[in-house]
Amino acid sequence: MSTPTLAQLRMPTAGVWQIDPGHAEVGFVGRHLGLTKVRGRFTRVTGLIVIADDTRDSSVDVTIDMASVASGDQSRDDHLRSPDLFDVDAHPTATYRSTAVSFDGPRGTIDGNLTIKGIGRPVRLDADYVGQAVDPWGNERAVFSARTRINREDWGLTWNMLLEAGGLLVSKEITLEIEVELIRQPT
After folding, report:
1. C-beta separation of 147 from 177 below 8 A
2. CATH architecture of residue range(s) 26-184
3. Per-residue pLDDT averaged across 1-6, rounded?
4. Domain regions of the chain by residue span
5. Which DSSP string do the residues of 78-92 spell out, in sequence order?
6. How far is residue 75's CA from residue 69's CA, in Å, rounded to a whole number?
7. 45, 63 Cβ separation under 8 angstroms
8. What percentage of the chain exceeds 70 in pLDDT?
9. How far apart are CA 7 and CA 19, in angstroms?
10. Residues 47-91 pLDDT 10s
11. Burial level of 158, CB count in 10 A (0-12/13-18/19+)?
């Protein structure tokens, strides 16, 4: 059996699809000292995606547990959770809600509103439909990837330090990398 190419993939069956939290990740990449890529991720991501027969009528509604941030360094994770940055005690979740969905085959864009620390801003995601499979328990699953770049200061994430030689300790531009596996809900 051959694997279908990207051009051969058909969008998943129309319906309501739930994000499988065990197979979902919102990752981020920033620069430290303007040089080193530092990666982190949020491990508790939930939401519903409605896939319509006409993908322009589809919708995305995602909630991210900000306390689930993990970057591989406990002191950095604690700082990310602090009032200096995500302030998870006051703002425990971030959300992304679509305003427009457009796919041409397996590639598309999702426009939406990303809210972090109570601040909502429009964000466009470049998205790819990766494929669909049935798991061993008979559940229909679909996988999507998405990415974008944002300026973290647009959401009030302004903590930083000036370096002695000039420049900033932490980059303002952050790349978001999203991987979600969805489970089709019964109708």
Report:
1. yes
2. Beta Barrel (2.40)
3. 41
4. 26-184
5. HHHHSTTTT-TTT--
6. 12
7. yes
8. 84
9. 24
10. 999 999 888 999 999 999 999 999 888 988 998 898 988 899 999
11. exposed
